[in-house]
Structures are given as C-alpha cells and as structure tokens.
Amino acid sequence: MTGPILSYCAVRKLFGQFVALDGVSFEIARGEVVCLIGPSGSGKSTLLRCTNGLETIDGGEIRFDGVPLPSNDAGARQIRQRMGMVFQNFELFPHNRVIYNVAIGPRIVLRMKDGLAVRRAEALLDKVGLSEKAGSYPANLSGGQQQRVAIARALAMEPELMLFDEPTSALDPETIGEVLNVMKRLADEGMTMLVVTHEMTFARRVANRVIVFERGTIVEDGPPTQIFETPRVERTRDFLSHLGWVG
Amino acid sequence: MDLDFTPLIESRQYLLEGLELTIVLSLATVAASLALGGAVGLARCYGPSSLRWFLVLYIDSMRAVPVLVVLVWTYFAFPILSGISLPPFWAALVALTLHIAAYVAEIVRAGITSVRPGQLRAALAIGMSRREAVVEIILPQAIIRMLPAFGSILSITIKDTAIAAVIAVPEYMKQSETVAGQSFHPIEVFSVAAIVYFLILFPVTRLVDMLYARVAHLGRS
Amino acid sequence: MNFDWTVIWRNAPSLAEGTLLTVVLTTLTMAIAIPGGIVLALMRLSPIRAVSAASAGFVEFFRNLPLILVVYWAYYVMPVAFDVQFSAFTTGLAALALNVSAYNSETFRAGIQSIRKGQVEAALALGMSRAQAVREVVLPQAVPRVLPVLASTWVSLFKDTSLVSVIAVGELAYTAMRIRSQTFRVLEMLTAMAAIYWALGYPQAKLADWLHRKFRVME
Fold it and tell me: Which of C2, C112, C125, C138 is closest to C46 using CA atoms?
C-alpha cells in the first residue's frame, strides 16, 4: 500500500461565524506519529473530529487511504471502524465492566461472537497492563487506568489509524506517565497516530512530526528537533516560550 | 362558537372573593404545613425511636391516599366519629395541612440527611451539645438545601386548594363552577379560571426554578 | 350513633369495579403519557426553535394548572372543539394524559440530557450506528435514571385519578361516594374508600421507594 494514509486539502470548518479551520493542508504517511500542538481554540481538536466524521467539513477535502471521506452514514461508519479515537474524558461506558467496554466494539460493530470478542479484549487489557481490572467498573479505576482501557477499547477494532484528542489533559500528573508509555509502545509498534496534545516532552521524544496550529491554520510543520530547537516561524517560538518550554 | 364573557364581568365580585379565599387558604395551609411538617421531620430525625414508626406510617399513608379522599373524609366522616363539625374552610385547612405536612416532613428529613455526617462529628468535637450542633450547624445547611423544595410546596398547595371545591369551600374553583353552572357559559368561565391560576402559579414555579439553580452550588459542601 | 359496616361488604362488587376502573385509568394514562412524554422531550431538545418552544409552552401550561380545573375544562371544551360527544371516561383520560405527559417530558428530558455527549461520540467513534449507540450506551444509562421518577409519577397519578370523579367517571372515589349517597352510610363508605386507596397506594409507594434505592445514581 502506497500513498499517504490521510491527506487534508484546504480543509475549512465553520461554527456559525467562527472559522475553526481555515484552509488546512497536510498529509500523513503510514506509520507516522504526528503531534498537533497550539493554543486552545486553534482548531486541533476540530480537525481530529472532522477526520472521523464526528464533525462535517465546510470546504476542502479529507482523504483516507486515497478515498474522500464519505458523506453518507453507512460509509462514515465503515471509515470509523478503521480509525480508533481516544477522548480527553476517556468516555468509558460506566454501566459496563472494563472487559465489556473493551469488547463492545468487536461485539456490536464487527458482530464478533462473545467468546472471541472477550478473548481479544483480555489480550488487549494485558497489553496495556490492566488484566486484573477486567471485572471492575470504570468508576473504580483511576483516570490513568480508565484512559488505558479507552486505548484498549479503540485498539480492539484493529484500526489502521489512532486519533488521540488531548489524551492526558484530564489526568493527574502521576498517571500521565502510564498513559504516555502505552502510547509510546504503540508508536514503536508502527501504529499511525495523530495526537493533539499539550505534552511537549512526549511530542519531542515520540513524534516523527510536530504541526503547530494557530487560529485554524498551520503555522509550522516539521520534525520535533526543528520545532522545539530551531523553529523557523516567530509564532512558534512565541507559543513555546509562552508555555515555558525550555529546549 | 360565540363566546360571551359578560357573566364573568357580572359575577366578578363573587369570583374575586373566591380568589381571595384561594390565596388565604393557600397561605394558611403552607404556614400550618411547614409548622407541622417541620416538627414531624425533625422528630423523625432526632426524636425518640418509639415515635418513629408512627410518624413513618403517617407520612407514607399521606403518600398513598388522594387529597380528595382526605378532604371528603375530614368534612363528612370526621364529624360523625368525633361529634365535632368543621365548617368547609376549616375542614379544608385541616385536610390539606395533614396531606401537605407529610411532604414537608420528607423534605426536612432529606435536607437534614444530606448534610455530611462529618459536620455533626466536627461540631460535637468542638464541644457543642447535640442540640447546639443541630441548631447551629446542621439546620442552617439543611434549610438552604430545602428551600427550592419548599417553594414547590407553595405551588402544590395552590393547586390542591382547587380540590377543596368538592367540599363546597367557596374558593376560586368553586365560585367558577357556580358561575359556570348558572350562566351556561362554562367554556368562558373555566378558560378565564385557567388563565388566572396560570398567572398565579407561573411566577411561583419560575421562582422555584431560579431558587434551585441558585442554591445548587450553595448547598454543596 | 350506629354503624353498619356490612354495607361495605354488600357493595363489594361495585367497589371492586370502581377500583378496577381506577387501575385501568392509571394504566391507560401512563400508556399514553410515556410515549407522549418522550415525544415532548425530543421536541424540547430539538434545534428548531419553534418546535422546542411549543413543547416548552405545553409543559409550562400543564405544570401551572390545577388538574381538577383541567378535568372540568376538558369536559366542557372538548365536545365543542371537536364537535363530538365524548364519554366522561375519555374526557378524564384525556385530561390526565395531557397532564402526565407534561410531567413525563421533563423526566425524560433530564434523563436524556444527563448522558454526556461524549458517550455517544465514543460509541460512534467505534463505528456504531446511532441506533446502536442509543441501544448500547444511552438507554442503559437513561433508564435507571428515569424509571424511579416514572414510578413516583405513577403513584401520584393513581391518586389523581380520583379527581375525574367530579365529572362522574365511575372510578373508586365516585363509586364509593355514590354508594354513600344511596345508603347514607357516610362514615363507613368514606372510611372504606380511604382504606382501599391506602391498601393499594401504600405498596405502590414502597415499590417506588425501592426503585429509587436500587437505581440510586452516583453523581
């Protein structure tokens, strides 16, 4: 398979009068780990949500595996099965035990037999280090544990691409590390990842590429060494120094 | 359908007197219910346990029996049993108070039990007597939480006074019924009655909604 | 002062019929008012201003009127408005159903809104259809929140059916009071009426309490 897995071409998104995305264009190759950084409201999360169809775009085009995102429901659902998404607030289903949270995608969407789905879920829970929590309810897990389960839930669908929407922003500092470790392992295994994050250390160490957003447009796009050490654009420097980033 | 509102205009004094009685009965009931219900609620929480089963029986019975039934029984049956005959207004006041005080008691109990147990422990630890702790620490917090529910008691009471019409209390509903029957223009009379009740109740429920919104964050400890 | 408590036993069949009608009235009203409440709640949550406002207006209207007035008003207005003669039962049912639908709509609205938007998004992100998301994620969370409140509404409704006695619907209150007028056994019949309501209402209230405890939602 050749060609970029995702390509954005002059993508525009409006919320009423507010221009959330103003002509965003870039491509992601298979296996790349791309981090989107930038101030709040700069459009990063919006772009992510347009990618898997939770939001519709008002201009331009998004292509997944060379094919424009379908506008019809059934087509959109097909695409979403091939993309996994991890949310800032984890969004585990509180009425299901952890094991069933992870198994629900294969069971309901892929119509997998219960036994098979559960076995797949058990393997994934083991992978994120939470086998012993399989029978617990989400409410009894820490934030970091819930987010790891959420990652396992998304991986259960065996997606080709993983979208992370500020995965550690709602976590206590002590638990951020365990989630980032899981994400790093995923990256090492070759998963294509698009990560909206404020965790600059993660971006610096794990990302192949960092894209800086501001006010709905791309300010700079390059490898972490460029962005963090020798940014080419003034605004990138401003943003990073504003964050207190010391290279 | 041609509407004729003149009977309403001709009987306006009669209807206004009914409205006045509705308001008087409502306020009197609310006052009496708060007193009785407050006492019952407090007794349930802090009173002797030998009394509690009786209070619980009273409260749950009022949840099971309709207002109409309590009104009718108080006005027609009670005099036979006790020899005391109550005029319609007083029968209604007694019946409505009994019924609504049960709700108030539940509100009081819910309000008190919603205050964290740690508050009482802390108060006792400082050296307050149990009574002082309840009065100074528990009740003020509990009352703030109860306020919105008390507001809805007023709304419920005003609506329930209309049922007193069935025991011929000359409040607004009864007067409207009479005018409707005599004038043969029930649609106009009851439509106006609906508007009047709405105009009275709407501000009350709005106020209660606002209270709920205001108090939601205050009450959280 | 002599009492004849056998009058209750002698009129047991009529009282049973009246009680049955009370139960039927309650059940039918809920059967209409649950879908009715859902429709009104969905209307209220609609992004279309006119639809949302219409639903809100309807609910406000019925929250702020005494039910007994609605019963009388329906009794006189319905025949004129629809040019059809309705039975008292139908009129009473209509008044009750309109009233309870309004209350139910608030219950359903609160239940639906208590489910975070993110929950539905997480379900969709896995590839579920909207219907699957509602079935697997929304309903299992909404039902436990809504059910106890519906139970309380049922208990109130059961009592409120007594109000349609004023338009001569033959439910329990009307039947008991009719027998009282016919036999002049005031204390006996009114006490019997109270006792029957108590006997039926008490367990229902306890059941509603149990549901509240069972489905106590952690905030």
Answer: C112
Q: Record the tokens describing residue C43, joined without a space.
A: 């209307």
pLDDT for res C203: 95
The partner residues of A22 in beta bridges, in order of sequence, read A12
Q: Which of C87, C107, C88, C84 is nearest to C36 (CA)?
A: C107
Q: Tens of pLDDT along B34-89?
A: 999 999 998 988 888 888 899 999 999 999 999 999 999 999 999 998 889 999 99
Does the CB of A104 have a partner CB in chain C at under 8 Å? yes
Contact C205 B205 (CB under 8 A): no
Which helix H or strand E contains B201, and what residues bound it?
Answer: helix B186-218
Determine contact: B81 vs chain C, CB below 8 A.
yes
Answer yes or no: is pLDDT of B221 > 60. Answer: no
CA C47 to chain B, closest CA, distance in angstroms equals 23
Check whether B27 has a pLDDT greater than 90. yes
**Radius of gyration, CA atoms only, chain C:** 21
Q: Give the global pTM.
A: 0.81
- pLDDT at site C217: 57
CB contact (8 A) between residue B64 and residue C68: no
Contacts of residue A47, defined as CB under 8 A and 6 or more positions apart, other chains included, come to A8, A11, A13, A21, A24, A36, A213
**How many angstroms separate the CA of residue A37 from the nearest CA in chain C?**
22
d(C-alpha C11, C-alpha C9), whole Å: 5
Cα nearest neighbour of B161 on chain C: C66
Q: Do C155 and B63 touch (CB under 8 A)?
A: yes
> Residue C219: pLDDT band by 50, 70, 90 thresholds?
very low
A13 contacts A43 by C-beta, under 8 angstroms: yes
**How is residue A152 written in tokens?**
């396992």
Tokens 């049973």 belong to: C16
Q: Do chains A and B touch (3 or more CB pairs under 8 A)?
A: no
The pLDDT, as a whole number, for residue A5 is 92
Contacts of A50 in chain C (CB under 8 A): none
